[in-house]
Amino acid sequence: MAERSTAAVDVADNSGDEPLTAKADQSTADGVAKNRERDTEDVEAQGSGGTDNPGKASPPELHSGHKLARRYRLEECVTRLDGFSSWRAVDEKLRRAVGVHILPADHARARSVLAAARSSALLGDPRFVQVLDAVEENDLVYVVHEWLPDATELTALLASGPLEVFDAYQMVSQVASAMAAAHREGLAHLRLNPNAILRTSSGQWRIRGLAVNAALRGASSETPQRTDTEAIGALLYAALTQRWPYENDAYGLAGLPKDVGLIAPDQVRAGVHRGLSELAMRALSNDGATASRHESACTTPEELVKAIGEMPRIRPPEPVFTAPPEYQRTTYQQGTYGRPAPRPGFTQPVSVPPPPLQSRTGRALKWAVSALLIAALGLGSWQLADALMDQGGKSNENQNQTTDDGDKNSATPKPTKTLSIDDAEEYVAKGDAQHPGDVKLTYDGSSTTGWRTSSYTNGPDMVIKPGVGIVYDLGSAQELSAATLSFRYGGNHTTVELYATDSLSSSTPLSSMQKLGRTKTNSASANVKVDKPVKSRYVLVWLTALPYSGADSANYSDAGYKQAITNVKFTG
């Protein structure tokens, strides 16, 4: 699909907006001067307490408590800049927090803001902060969007230091995948920066301001895909080094030293992951960076997604288990109950057991006990021998069977091993794909990430599709014995089937595949046993029935029949 230069803006929704430098805009050479002039205006506006630039439409006179459409009650103004304002508000109809951008209807950018908001809302991709409403009324234009109180900006996360390797990998993977999907629909961001990237409490990364933020700022680019790709490279660079990859400071991050140029992240900070360092340079190569191993530059989010997929998979850190504190015995122990606690400096006397019975009565008691034990042992032996004699020939028959069959009865079960997964692709039998960019999250070792289906109104058996699923590449032909899956949603009806297929492609029909096993579960996990061990390199995990679950803001889905796979493990 042809690129669409849709403007976008980085309006701070949960915190004040921060001006950007020309370098931070990640614009092409033709737009640098224009962006520098715009950012200078931003600085002047913020430095004067939000006074608008002369000659621009004044922002509407609004205040806390003002209602829009008798529904959205404004609570707090978080940005007032360049003729528009951004607010935290409350949707009184649905009783939830929302964000609102407001500008006069006669503002020069009002039409483009409305168009951008409606285009973003039509995308409906839950990896982006969703546009909920875009309205023109009473001489105002306002855009209502989600407000995520549990999310943290990348700016705040980097304030304490660079991200862990796995977190940086997850961030760039999810952001690149989301932007690739947006560009396929002709939408660009153009203002990707640490303020626009949010991490939710569940560990998911979300992007705010798609199309809308640039429209509010009047930003544009002749090469929007390249602009967004370079911006993703800058985000990864900052995540790895806690430095902004340009000379100017921005977003609370120090810029690079003057006159040294753009150097690789692993040269800025020790211990940076080499593969991620090279990936950042490939994305930034259009701005002067060079990859250390001379890989080709990534000029589109799609190319960046492919480059990430070619990297060795980065696994999450192993959990650290802390030994429980030593069991503290109380004073309610044998021999201490009711006794005073020992005083400091006082040595507690050691109790001495009483001497053994040495009297004639004691000796008689010992002989009696010994006799009883001997009698009991004799009785038990007699009963055992009697039972063996009753079985007679049956016992001999069992012995002969063991001898004839070798070690059939005594052989231990064949040990199983976990099979590695090299790659995966979503299998689409009919209609549209679900979320192909997230399939790798099903074997990243994290239970907080995963691939999800759409939410369907009919169920539990899938109606408009024969099923949905993922094909996994085991690297080479492996003897498969079982698959273990973890799901996000419990409840009834989740039905899973396994098939052996000949490639990752969706071109192979189900009728040409070999069915390996099937199971139905009412919990958030399933174990699908292969009826007869089969060697195959490619395995399809196929869902044909889904449980019903309510709306899930953490997993960005509406109520309906749906499922999400968070982890897949194959054993052989």
Count of helix runs: 11
- What integer value in Å does the Rg equal? 34 Å
The secondary-structure class comes to alpha+beta
CATH topology of the largest domain: Transferase(Phosphotransferase), domain 1
Helix content bin: 25-40%
Q: What is the mean pLDDT? A: 79
Total domain count? 3
What is the name of the CATH superfamily of the largest domain?
Answer: Transferase(Phosphotransferase) domain 1
CATH architecture of the largest domain: Orthogonal Bundle
Low-confidence stretches: 1-60, 327-352, 393-411
How many distinct beta strands? 19
What would you call the shape?
A: globular
SS strand fraction: 15-25%
CATH uppermost class of the largest domain? Mainly Alpha
What is the subunit organization of this protein?
Answer: single chain
Give the termini distance in whole angstroms.
42 Å
Sheet of most strands: 8 strands, antiparallel
Secondary-structure element sequence? HEEEEHEEEHHEEHHHHHHHEEEEEEEEEE
